[in-house]
Amino acid sequence: MKLSMVVTPPNEKRLKALRQLGGDFAVHYDMQDLPGDLAALKEIRAIYERHDLPWKIAEQGPAIDRIVMGKEGADEQIERYKRIIGHLGRLGVEVIAYNFMPQVSEDAMVVRTRFDATTRGGARTSGFRLSDVTAQTMPHDEAAIPRERMWDNLERFLKAVVPAAEAAGVKLAMHPDDPPLSPLCGLERIMDRQESFDRLLAISASPANAITFCIGCFAEMGADITALIERYRERIPYVHVRDISGTGTDFIETFPDDGQTDLIAVFRKLHEIGFDGYLRSDHAPLLATDAGEGPEGYAIQGHLFAIGYLRGLDQATRPVGER
Question: Which end of the chain is flanked by fewer CB atoms within 10 Å, N or C?
Fold first, then answer.
């Protein structure tokens, strides 16, 4: 498995620290969009190359807001998406991690009801409680559409872009809804259960139609994580490692070694299936020593701890003879 990391903002000091910790590959994280021209994408790649970090994952990739909701301009957005896939393939990017939630916030539609929850030692973290959701939790003016229409929009999108992804050598890796609940804040969300991922993969049998296996989101579903890894073993190019304490309707995010998921068993399973894709630490609590620069959940010091823990899990769970 290949250790990668989101560094946002990707400044020189943070990228240098990632490389020093043994991060081998770059994840470019921009939940809004990517540039449409090759020259601008080359500039993004150059940021990471200066630190010997090959750019391999684009998260979330090109804008898809009109595609998700089936709005006017969706066809043009699909064509733009296909062009950018071609550019990314030429630059060596192998995975586009995307979601299909209505794109109504800076983080697509990740919903939390508090950002002042605490976990081990009083570290600040985020939490979600369905009973606390109000009209002000995520205000928007998006008009709701039926769940099945969203599925129609996804199928149309994949049938158009999967051939372009195959040609470019890029995998489209769908991230679960976070939290995996629907409807939420007045809008349907369709990647909210195991059956949704079965249906996603049935749209196209191509390896380019794949999954971002977010351990935290599948934990929020109450899923058997190792059983799902086995089920989707041929379609997982990218793993997000985070954990929670609670249930899908009432949880807080934790440090990776302090949640409810048996990550040792998860990493053993990844080695068992011969996983050779990319993984990264996901949302991390805020340490007392961290200035908090970056989006919620992406302050650097919590991630520095997490990435070291993931390296240890990887090495400790490798088969004997490979450690």
Answer: C
- Residues in Cβ contact with 198 at an 8 Å cutoff, skipping those fewer than 6 apart: none
C-alpha 14/C-alpha 158 separation (Å) is: 35
Question: How confident is the model over 45-98, as pLDDT tens digits?
Answer: 999 999 999 999 999 999 999 999 999 999 999 999 999 999 999 999 999 999
d(CA 175, CA 200): 11
d(CA 60, CA 32): 7
Low-confidence ranges of the chain (pLDDT < 70): 292
Residue owning tokens 């971002």: 212
What is the rounded CA–CA span in Å between residue 129 and residue 124? 16
For 296, counting Cβ atoms within 10 Å of its Cβ (0-12 exposed, 13-18 middle, 19+ buried), the class is: middle
Q: Global pTM?
A: 0.96
Query: CB neighbours of 161 closer than 8 A, spacing ≥ 6?
Result: 78, 81, 82, 85, 172
Domains contained in the chain, CATH given:
2-317 (3.20.20.150)
Buried b or exposed e, range 157-185, using 16+ CB within 10 angstroms = bbebbbebbbebebbbbbbbbbbbbbebb
